[in-house]
Amino acid sequence: xxxIADANMPFAEExxxxxxxxxxxxxxxxxxxxxxxxxxxxxxxxxxxxxxLLAANSKLKFVGTATIGTDHIDQDFLKSKNIEFxxxxxxxxxxxxxxxxTTMLELAHKYGEVLKDKTVGIVGAGNTGSALEKCxxxxxxxxxxxxPIKAEQGEPRKFVSLEAVIEGADVIxxxxxxxxxxxxxxxxxxxxAKLKQLKHNAWLLNCCRGEVIDNQALTRVxxxxxxxxxxxxxxxxxxxxxxxxxxxxxxATPHIAGYSVEGKARGTFMLYEKVCQxxxxxxxxxxxxxxxxxxxxxxxLDANLTQLDLLRLMRLVYDISDDDRSFRQLDFxxxxxxxxxxxxxxxxxxxxxxxxxxxxxxxxxxxxGFSREQA
Length: 375
Ligand SMILES: NC(=O)C1=CN([C@@H]2O[C@H](COP(=O)(O)OP(=O)(O)OC[C@H]3O[C@@H](n4cnc5c(N)ncnc54)[C@H](O)[C@@H]3O)[C@@H](O)[C@H]2O)C=CC1
Ligand SMILES: O=C(O)C(=O)[C@H](O)COP(=O)(O)O
Description:
Helices cover 33% and strands 14% of the residues. The chain is α/β, with parallel strands linked by helices. The strands form 3 sheets. Strands 7-6-8-9-10-11 form a 6-stranded parallel sheet, sandwiched between helices. A 5-stranded parallel sheet has the order 2-1-3-4-5. Helix 3 (93-110) packs across helix 4 (127-139) and helix 3 (93-110) crosses helix 11. The mean pLDDT is 96. The site of 1,4-dihydronicotinamide adenine dinucleotide has 33 residues, from helix 3, helix 4 and helix 5.
């Protein structure tokens, strides 16, 4: 059995070689010829899987994307060819939630503000949006949730409109899939008109898909709205962001919000479980067996945490300034956006860090995601 996997997919060999030969290829440049004799195709967000890519393949049984997003997959085409498909819902939701939360602490630190005084609007209250909500709730930050689809489905959480978020939130974090059709389409959800309406001093974070914000419009609006603070992990037209936009962004990264070791392992593992099911094979290993030890075994806390202390603690698991600095030095015309992603040293999630000596009043740290030392 021939298995083709994106070269940027950790743990693919470990998990899939029991089913056949694993060939790793660059995801962005995969061609129909490359995949013509694959039985299993494992991709990430940079490979468009459609009739052109699969034109020369008549034996493919399974396509898996080790990502949450599916906007790069023509699922109707796969169905028409009876090719099984799976994504990895929720695999890197914790990583994205923690990325957004820690970046809010960074912004608060940079501008001398208090995160707990802010209201954070979360647009898209699915896996990643809810992971962020969990961190914010644990820390005691007020949130507004906007998700008209979940609201229509009768979910018990309270939802507000996008207009109410724009009007009422000091911070807006985007967590929607990229959709181009339908009542709730998200392509250019934040267009020029909406960007202009952002509150004075608003913080805007995008860690879902670049095209959810009209990046041309954002570049124009930022010219006269310096008060808006931006965190962009995703960019319209990746891997070629609008370069004039970058200096106006407070924290800029190359689509790595979901890049935690745990998130990547979960993504590949979920596809492995799916293939085991498809081939009626037993699941022989577990995610925890794939994960390396964290370099700090535990942290002992001796006092109540200030906002800056919490930021310092979060920086032990992820210090965004390293990625931000590297991002600003990239030569985008030379495809270095992808080079940086490929070389990225995946960070850990808060759960990798065990905290000891915590008073009861600090139990919120465990709700946020850190691990508790076992008695
Ligand atoms: N930057 C990164 O590394 C990553 C980016 N992503 C992106 O984030 C997206 C969201 O991921 P999840 O939260 O796991 O997906 P999800 O499917 O669990 O949640 C998305 C939520 O957005 C809601 N939604 C859809 N249209 C909306 C609209 N117009 N307004 C408000 N809400 C709307 C849906 O009802 C759903 O609850 C993914 O589709 C992917 O594109 C995901 C993981 C990592
Ligand atoms: O899960 C998603 O959706 C994402 O955006 C991924 O985290 C992006 O990573 P790659 O698939 O492009 O490596």
